[in-house]
């Protein structure tokens, strides 16, 4: 098992397979979009597989594929099949906006995908269209249904909470009542805009502190409004009853519900002391922390170096992994360019 300089076991690798996306969510990309990387800069499936083999040898056992939108990358199910076959890799999950799942969920399940997270910012079609700048809620919901129907083991829904969007947490809770859907509310993070922000401050890109909603506020609303809506009592879920993933979410469940409700609170309840992950960007840079712009050049090592060189890079990443993200405001890359 790989251990970093602060004694944390690192067994989880998030791999971004593309910086491209078929949506333009306001909290993720600027209105003018971002310049796509040239295809030659993006890692090939062979390169991702080679890196995964080396990473697995150091103790990485779980992988999440993300982007951009991972389902716009042609042949994504093939990549899942190849990575699932790597010695030491025990699970592969994928984060998606879900809109392309109706046609891909079956292939992904057959390829061995263990889990899918569908990002759904609102269950109101008009809000969804506005926030995703043109997305259709019905397509994302059909994607979520397709994942369930395909038999993918863990289906989670990611909800980034942004104050001015006035999202209704109870409507999301309804998804968990009679199906094994795990809804997770995520605090809106200050990513991107780092080039116009000189350090910790109040805003980065489109993020401002006023837009952030602490998880405790959503929990309090769900407890009160859920009971009023007849969903019953919301109680914490013991660690062994939480959906798989060993991630940072804290889980709750309405009485009798099949699914759970999780909270991911990087800002109000830092979980850096349990951070177990590295991130590989689509253009082959290894990041030690979502908020750290210090990147190690895996692509160069893959194209011009040896497997030993890749091992050295992973060791260097473990040594450089910061103790905490220090509530840094702003990064040079947006979430879509890092891999959410
Ligand atoms: N396109 C896929 C999707 O929509 O899920 C995968 C990539 S997206 C960047 C991954 C996750 O990052 C999504 O759940 C998205 O909501 C989240 N995300 C993007 N920007 C964020 C921000 N500023 N704060 C918190 N989460 C963010």
Calculate the mean pLDDT score and round it: 92
The biggest beta sheet reads:
12 strands, mixed
What global shape is seen? globular
Structural class: alpha/beta
| Order of helix and strand elements from N to C terminus | EEEHEHEHEHHEHEEEHEEEEEEHHH
Low-confidence segments: 195-200
Report the strand count: 16
**Distance between the amino and carboxyl termini:** 24 Å
Spatial order of the strands in the main sheet?
11-12-13-8-7-6-5-4-3-14-15-16
Bound molecules: S-adenosylmethionine
Q: Roughly how much helix do the residues carry, as a percent range?
A: 25-40%
Question: Nearest-angstrom radius of gyration?
Answer: 19 Å
Proportion of residues in extended strands: 15-25%
Instruction: Tally the helices.
Output: 10
Short description:
By secondary structure, the protein is α/β, with parallel strands linked by helices. It contains ten helices and 16 strands. The protein binds S-adenosylmethionine.
Give a written overview of the molecule.
The protein is an alpha/beta fold. The protein has helices at residues 45-58, 76-84, 101-110, 125-131, 137-149, 169-176, 215-228, 298-304, 307-320, 335-338, and strands at 2-3, 9-10, 12-16, 62-66, 91-96, 115-119, 154-161, 181-187, 203-204, 207-208, 234-236, 250-254, 261-264, 277-280, 285-287, 295-297. It has a twelve-stranded mixed β-sheet. It has a two-stranded antiparallel sheet with strand order 1-2. A hairpin with a 5-residue loop joins strand 1 and strand 2. The protein binds S-adenosylmethionine (SAM). Residues 21, 27-28, 66-67, 69, 95-97, 119, 158, 160, 186, 188-189, 191, 335-336, 340 line the site of S-adenosylmethionine.
């Amino acid at each position: 098992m790989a251990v970093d300089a602060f004694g944390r076991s690192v067994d989880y690798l998030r791999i971004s397979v593309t910086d491209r996306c078929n949506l333009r969510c306001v909290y993720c990309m600027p209105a003018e979009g971002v310049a796509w990387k040239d295809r030659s800069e993006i890692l090939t499936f062979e390169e991702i597989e080679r890196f995964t083999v080396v990473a697995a040898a150091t103790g990485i056992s779980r992988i999440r594929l993300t982007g951009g939108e991972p389902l716009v990358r042609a042949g994504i199910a093939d990549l899942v099949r190849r990575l699932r076959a790597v010695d030491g890799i025990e699970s592969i999950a994928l984060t998606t906006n879900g809109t392309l799942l109706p046609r891909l969920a079956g292939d992904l399940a057959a390829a061995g995908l263990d889990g899918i997270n569908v990002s759904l910012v609102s269950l109101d079609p008009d809000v969804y269209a506005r926030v995703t700048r043109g997305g259709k809620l019905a397509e994302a919901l059909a994607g979520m249904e397709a994942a369930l129907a395909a038999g993918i083991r863990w289906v989670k829904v990611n909800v980034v909470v942004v104050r001015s969007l006035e999202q209704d947490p109870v409507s999301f809770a309804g998804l968990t009542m009679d199906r094994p859907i795990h809804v997770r509310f995520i605090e809106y993070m200050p990513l991107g805009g780092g080039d116009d922000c000189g350090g910790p401050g109040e805003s980065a890109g489109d993020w401002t502190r006023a837009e952030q909603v602490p998880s405790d506020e959503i929990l309090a609303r769900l407890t009160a409004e859920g009971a009023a809506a007849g969903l019953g009592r919301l109680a914490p879920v013991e660690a062994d009853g939480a959906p798989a993933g060993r991630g940072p979410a804290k889980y709750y469940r309405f009485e009798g519900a099949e699914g759970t409700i999780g909270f991911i609170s990087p800002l109000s309840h830092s979980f850096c002391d349990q951070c177990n992950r590295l991130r590989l960007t689509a253009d082959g840079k290894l990041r030690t922390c979502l908020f750290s712009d210090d990147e190690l050049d895996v692509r160069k090592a893959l194209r011009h170096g040896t497997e030993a060189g890749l091992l050295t890079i992973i060791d260097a990443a473990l040594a450089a992994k910061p103790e905490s993200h220090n509530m840094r405001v702003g990064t040079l890359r947006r979430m879509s360019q890092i891999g959410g």
